Amino acid sequence: MLSRLLKEHQAKQNERKELQERRRREAITAATCLTEALVDHLNVGVAQAYVNQRKLDHEVKTLQVQASQFAKQTAQWINMVENFNQALKEIGDVENWARSIEMDMRTISTALEYVHKGPVQSASS
What we know:
This protein has one helix at 2-117. By secondary structure, the chain is mainly alpha-helical.
């Protein structure tokens, strides 16, 4: 009877060990599956972040090129405006020069008329 009880006890212990081992393997398998699922989920996020970073890098390069082109265009516009302002100043200088010449020509014209007509004689002479 004691030996039968011992055998039953050992059999139950073996069953419990087997059950515990099976549950341990199932837990390991479940943990592995969970870990893989989490890693896969994280990898998708990382991959999307990488794709987004590449797009941003491309956009930054494009923006740098466009900013450089805009800076060159702006420099050309500034140069054109400065040249235009200089031309306006020169036109103003030419206008002043023309007035000065006109005044000189009137003075000369008046002098020539005076010389041509001679001195005005008085009525009593």
